[in-house]
Amino acid sequence: MTEDIVIRADHLTKDYGHGRGIFDISFEVRKGEVFGYAGTNGSGKTTTIRNLMGFIQPDSGKSFISGKNSWEQRAEIMPNVSYIPGEIAFPPLSTGTDFLDVQAEYLGIDDYSYMNYLIQRLQLDPTARLKKMSKGMKQKTAIVAALMGHKEILVLDEPTTGLDPLMREVFLDLIHEEKKQGRTILMSSHIFEEIEDCCDRVAFIKDGRLLDVLDLNEKRNGKDKVLRLKFKNEAEETRFSRICTEKIEKDTNTGEDIVRFSEKDLGAVMQQLSTCSLEYLREEHFSMEEYFKSVYRRKGEGEDGTEN
After folding, report:
1. What pTM did the predictor assign?
2. Domain count, the chain
C-alpha cells in the first residue's frame, strides 16, 4: 500500500442473503482528501463502513486503515480514527456534558476551547439529559465528540441525520475546516448536495455494489459538457443519431436527448447539430444526483441498450 492511501477496501463482500449486504467493494481514500460514499438508504453504506472499522468480519476481501488490516488489527486502528456511527447510542450517563467530559478524558484533552467552539457553532446545549435529547441534539453531540479529538482520520456514517438545513450548512463548514487541517475524511450520505459540496471524489453504491467512482474536482473544472436537445420531429432526431459521434442517452421522463462530451469536442458537436432542426438546446450544468441516476440507468442496461 502506498503511503498516500489511508483507507482501502479490497473486494469486500458481506452477504446477508436475499440480495442484502455488499459485494466485491473496492475503493481507496487518499491522504488529505474528503471522500464521499453516496447511495440511497439501504444501499450498503453502513455495512461497508462497519467492515472498514473492524466491527464485522467480511465473508471475503479485506480492508485497511493506515496500512492496518481492519479486522485483524482493529484495536490498533481505533485510537487513530474518529467515528460517527449511523445509529447513535450513548453510554448510561446523565447529560451531554457528562458524555463529552468522559470523551475528553479518554482522548487526553485538557484544553476545552475547541470543544466549546464546536458546541457554539452547532448551537448545542450539552447540559440536556441524554435520554431526553432529540435526534438532532444527539447527532450534534456525536459530531462534537468526533471532531474535538483532532484525529487525522474521520469516518462519518450519515453524519447530518436529524440536522435541520441550517445545521447541515454549519456541519459542512466544519468539514471544510477539517480538510484545511489536512484530515482524511470518509463521509457517507444519501443527500447528494452535501457530498457535492465538500468532497473531492465520491463512490456510488447501489444494492450493495459499487457503480462508479467520480472525481468531483474534475467535474467542477467544467471539462465535460452536457447538452439536452429537443428535436422538431422524429426524423430529425434519427438523422442526428446517425451523424453524432458521441453517445446519446434518452430521458424517458422529458423525451429529451442527452449528449455528453469533452469540452474539446464542443465544436464538432455543434457542427453536427447545425444541420438539424431543433425545438431547443440547453446546457445542463453538473448535478451529482443526475449523474448518479444516469450511471444507475447505464449499469442496468447492456452496452447495446438491452436490459441485463
Report:
1. 0.80
2. 2
How far, in Å, CA of 9 to CA of 62, rounded? 6
Residues 227 and 215 in one domain: no
* Domain identity same for 41 and 109: yes
> Do 14 and 56 fall within a single domain?
yes
Cell, residue 90: 450513548
Q: Please determine, for residue 60, whether its predicted confidence score (pLDDT) is greater than 80.
A: yes
Q: Distances from the Cα of 251 to the Cαs of 180, 227, 228, 248, in angstroms?
A: 39, 12, 9, 10
Residue type, 67: G
Q: Which amino acid is at 170?
A: V
Distance CA 290, CA 306 (A): 21
Could you give the C-alpha distances from 57 to 13, 18, 24, 239, 255, in angstroms and in order? 9, 19, 14, 55, 46
Are 248 and 286 in contact, with CB atoms under 8 Å apart?
no
* Cβ neighbours of 281 (radius 10 Å): 16
Q: Give yes or no: residues 158 and 232 share one domain.
A: no
Between CA 291 and CA 10 the distance in angstroms is 25
List pLDDT tens digits, range 225-282. 889 999 999 999 999 999 998 989 998 889 999 998 888 898 999 999 999 999 999 9
Q: Which domain holds residue 208?
A: 5-219
